[in-house]
Design a protein that fits this description.
Elements (H helix, E strand, L loop, with lengths): L9 E4 L4 H12 L6 E3 L9 H11 L3 E4 L7 H6 L1 H22 L3 E5 L28 H21 L3 E6 L1 E3 L12 H15 L3 E5 L5 E2 L1 E3 H14 L6 E3 L5 E2 H12 L4 E5 L14 H7 L7 H15 L2
Parallel strand pairs: 1-2, 1-3, 3-4, 4-5, 5-10, 6-9, 7-12
Antiparallel strand pairs: 8-11
Helix pairs in contact: 1-7, 2-4, 4-5, 6-8, 6-10, 8-10
Length: 313
């Protein structure tokens, strides 16, 4: 069946990034007119005039807002002010300019970091406002949660059609494997393979390994975003995830096994654990636009490891 996205003029902020690249491929497969990939060197979305110029230059029917300044625990601790300001300004200004330009629909991504530190597990969308986020990534999480407030307010006042999705931790090929800014899976992959090749007996990891996390394979995430664009027209937030959790200790053991690292892990408990548990209730995504994650964690990790082995420096 033909997709309602076929022949649409589409803009993807963050389209040159990890998730954005897979989203652009998914849109092409739906028959969309070649999506316009926004690059920060051409349009600095922290600058409102750049947001306006982007929409004047592209005249889109649909805007996907994926652009973000983001990183792991270490990067969040080092850049709380920058992450708050830049992410908030990008979202606020881009959605406002989309409204003024009469864009048919915007699809924006929030973050799992927006949930309260001690939200009941599994995280349900109705619990988003029932507490403060985990401290190390709260500025980033709050900045992205403002997208939800803006979407709801603009729909109520202006009738603007916008959707805000809250994906869990993503992983997969083409991820960011820079140890200074990467998230947990690419960092573990790089550390395990580096230690394996160096013949090291141990790898040092932050925290104590007890926190749990949920992960969504990047191609599944791209499919979920496309389905929401095709089938969902509401400002009610929607979780995107697999609905399954694993402890960081178990995850490290699995990645070591799949990558061939036979040493031991040393847990540096002077470093933070981050949020104690993360697992999403994914009922709403299934019921409202038919998304169910397809790629099991072990299979996705094998693909991620294979990509890193082939493309590492």
């Amino acid at each position: 069946m033909s997709s309602p996205l076929a022949k649409k003029r589409i803009v993807v902020t963050g389209g040159a990034g990890f998730l954005g690249g897979f989203l652009v491929e998914a849109l092409r497969a739906r028959g969309a007119v070649e999506p316009f990939v926004v690059r920060s060197r051409d349009y600095d979305l922290v600058d409102r005039q750049a947001c306006r110029r982007l929409l004047q230059d592209t005249r889109p029917d649909l805007v996907f807002h994926l652009a973000a300044r983001v990183g792991g625990i270490g990067a969040n601790r080092q850049n709380p002010g920058g992450y708050l300001f830049e992410n908030a300004m990008m979202g606020l200004q881009l959605l406002e300019e989309c409204r003024l330009a009469g864009v048919e629909k915007t699809v924006a991504l929030g973050t799992i970091c927006a949930y309260p530190k001690h939200a009941p597990v599994p995280f349900r969308e109705d619990d988003l406002w029932n507490g403060y986020p985990e401290e190390t990534n709260a500025p980033y999480g709050i900045a992205k949660k403002m997208l939800l407030v803006q979407s709801e307010a603009y729909r109520r006042q202006y009738g603007m059609n916008s959707v805000v999705l809250f994906p869990v931790n993503l992983y997969g090929p083409r991820d960011n494997f820079d140890l200074q800014s990467s998230h947990v899976i690419p960092a573990l992959v790089r550390k395990c393979i580096g230690a394996r090749d160096a013949g090291s007996a141990e790898v040092i990891l932050w925290g104590d390994g007890s926190p749990t996390r949920e992960f969504l394979y990047v191609e599944d995430a791209a499919e979920a975003i496309v389905l929401a664009a095709e089938r969902y027209d509401s400002s009610d937030p929607v979780n995107l995830g697999s609905g399954e959790e694993i402890s960081i200790r178990e995850l490290a053991t699995l990645i070591a096994e799949l990558s061939g690292f036979r040493g031991r892990f040393v847990w540096d408990t002077s470093q933070p654990n981050g949020q104690p548990r993360r697992r999403l209730d994914v009922t709403r995504a299934r019921e409202r636009f038919g998304f169910v994650a397809r790629v099991p964690l072990a299979d996705g990790l094998r693909r991620t490891i294979a990509f890193f082995e082939e493309h590492r420096p």
